[in-house]
Amino acid sequence: MAKVSVEALARLSPLGNLSGERLAELAAYCRLESLAPGQALPRQRLEAGLSLYLLQGELRLSFADGSGAVLQAGSEAAAWPLGLQEPRPQALLAVGNVELLGVDGQLLDILLTWEQLAANAGVQKAPAVAPAAPEETTDWRQMSGAFNVQVLTASALGQLPPAHIDVLLQRFRRLRVPAGEVLIREGDVGDAYYLIESGSCEVTRRLGNKEVVLAQLGAGQAFGEEALVANARRNASVTMKSKGVLLKLGKEDFDALLRAPLLKGLSRDEAQDRVARGAVWVDVRYPAEFRFDGLPGAINLPVNEVRGAFGSLDPNREYVVYCQSGRRSSAVAFLLTQQGYQAWWLEGGLWGPLAETKEQ
């Protein structure tokens, strides 16, 4: 399938406000379609959540009052999505061969929101205390590694309130990190959340005298949130496998800007009701715990296996996550939500008011 050029996108409104890096990403999500001479564009296509643009050719527009007009590609009016002009056309007919470009309206709105807020983020102030790794200022609009289209649309970042986005970009600290540097040590107190802009990291855990690799992380992926959400010590170590750039967010900012809006808890009654309507119980304890007193119908997804399960869970299902106390389940619910899944955690866990549910 033909791919639209960045130059063509830059001539369209409001797409032209996006950075060149963002337009290059967006090009992969655009659809091109053709109309033959005399072929009509169904009016419902203008109401299907798509922003449609006339790239080549001419369209004859007919209006409710009986009047008409011709829209020509390259004109000022054609730089805007079809159907946004007033009065709105009732019929659109191709005059000669016509090429149209379509982009999902919701996707475009998310990108424009982040782009505009990023432009206002300003230059970061130097910290009072020098960081362990050199800190940089940045043009957030060029952060296509950390905030790529996939991250913004398929993860919970696209659900953040705009006010949180603005502050989040101001609070992130950008660090260049060499290969081999240990970023998080197993057993340490959690104090920060990290988002990878470039480079790769390795997540490991010590089992006996052996260091076991749990996951490999790359651009757009995050780590460090589990200990922050669960208020626990780090359960794994993270080391840079290659040199790269990280975005670091302190615990207080993480709690206020990410944890609070993204982590959703349910009471016993709310959890039971959601499961009765089709949600799936997810037990994040060890298999031995699950076999002993797991809830009927639950699937077992231990905390240490969650990252490997991304992509295997059904994005169209809802998940209610639980553990013994709610500590482990809150961390997993956040991880799933961050990946775009619809997930809630059971407040209080099996030690809480849900204990009686197992007897029903």
Please tell me about this protein's structure.
InterPro entries: cNMP-bd_CS, cNMP-bd_dom, cNMP-bd_dom_sf, Rhodanese-like_dom, Rhodanese-like_dom_sf, RmlC-like_jellyroll. It comes from Azospira oryzae. This is CRP-like cAMP-binding protein. By secondary structure, the protein is an alpha+beta fold. The chain has three domains: 6-106, Jelly Rolls (Sandwich); 124-260, Jelly Rolls; 263-359, Rhodanese-like domain (Oxidized Rhodanese, domain 1), CATH 3.40.250.10. 26% of the residues lie in helices and 28% in strands. The protein is built from eleven helices and 19 strands. The chain has helices at residues 6-10, 20-27, 105-119, 149-154, 162-171, 225-230, 251-262, 268-276, 287-293, 306-309, 327-338; strands at 31-35, 40-41, 50-62, 68-72, 91-104, 135-136, 173-177, 182-184, 192-198, 201-207, 210-217, 222-223, 237-240, 244-250, 265-266, 280-283, 299-300, 318-322, 342-346. Strands 1, 2, 3, 4 and 5 form a five-stranded antiparallel β-sheet that branches. Helix 3 (105-119) packs across helix 5. The longest helix is centred in the N-terminal third of the chain and has 15 residues, at 105-119.
The main sheet comes to:
5 strands, antiparallel
Name the average pLDDT. Answer: 85
Rg (CA only): 25 Å
What structural class do the secondary elements suggest? alpha+beta
Oligomeric state of the chains present here: single chain
Any low-confidence stretches, pLDDT <50, length ≥5?
A: 122-132, 354-360
Number of domains: 3
Helix percent band: 25-40%
Shape: elongated
What sequence of helices (H) and strands (E) makes up the elements?
Answer: HHEEEEEHEHHEEEEEEHEEHEHEHEHEHE
Strand residue content:
25-35%
Q: How far apart are the first and last residues' alpha carbons, in Å?
A: 55 Å
* Helical stretch tally: 11
CATH architecture of the largest domain: Sandwich
Named CATH topology of the largest domain: Jelly Rolls
CATH superfamily of the largest domain: Jelly Rolls
- The CATH class of the largest domain is Mainly Beta
Strand elements, count: 19
Domain Cyclic nucleotide-binding: 156-258
InterPro entries: cNMP-bd_CS, cNMP-bd_dom, cNMP-bd_dom_sf, Rhodanese-like_dom, Rhodanese-like_dom_sf, RmlC-like_jellyroll
Protein name: CRP-like cAMP-binding protein
Domain Rhodanese: 275-358
